[in-house]
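Students often ask why we bother encoding 3D structure as a string. The short answer is that it lets us treat folding as translation between two languages. Here is a chain of 262 residues written in the first language.
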Amino acid sequence: MSRGVLLFAFNNDTTNYYDMAVYCAKRVNHFLNLPVTLVTDKESLPSNQSYQFDNVLLVSAQSDNYKQKDVWKNKDRYRAYELSPYDETLVLDSDYVVNTDKLNQIFDTYTDFMCAKTAIYLMFPDAPIDIISTNSFSCPWATVIAFKKTDKAKQIFDCIKMIQENYIHYSNLYSFVPVPYRNDYALAIALHIVNGGLEDTTNYIPWNLLHVNEKTKLYKIGDEFDTNYVATRVVKRTEYIKIKDIDFHMLNKTNFTEIING
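And here it is in the second language, the structure alphabet:
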């Protein structure tokens, strides 16, 4: 039975997601010992690739979604089921930083499908829980997804596609702002539909997803894989914390680019 990681990376005018995917893939190879397949487009793929992915799949990314005035090519995540060459797949955001082998534990705990249910923010422990809307329910995260090639997993991805194609309707139904399109919202609604309106806790990774938001800055110390990160935030004064041996999601893309190039 084959296992591997699927990364989606589509550049825009301000962010090089391909470079982030390379950084992520190297760490996946090192810590998880898994192959990596990249899904990207011709515009994002450099002519002189310094890192060789196990597979590179070129697709025509949809570019009708915007985030903070930038094109945000995030509408192809529903294709993970059809594109993955693996029997068991981890789908990671390209700005997810792997520092441990913990994600391998998912393969021993899930049946068909798993995603990140709850998130915490580094240095901001009191950040509110993410919800779709005040009239709806809490929102899982599409940042980390694991699935097998089963009927239920296919139903979930097919449902995400349906929701994406009818996003205005579902934004009205669940009372959220439809711009920009968010994979997290589509995933939340798809799980709600496929599970018959009930919550299936087996679909959730049993630990918190750690975000590093725009109000936190990280500095990398150490070599490529034996790495410490010093995090800072400014509230009334500058505060510091050192983290090591923990995976995290970099919401601060500018800071992540500095770490990659540092």
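Translate back mentally: Helices lie at 17-32, 80-83, 151-165, 167-174, 183-194, 253-261. Keep this in mind for the problem set.
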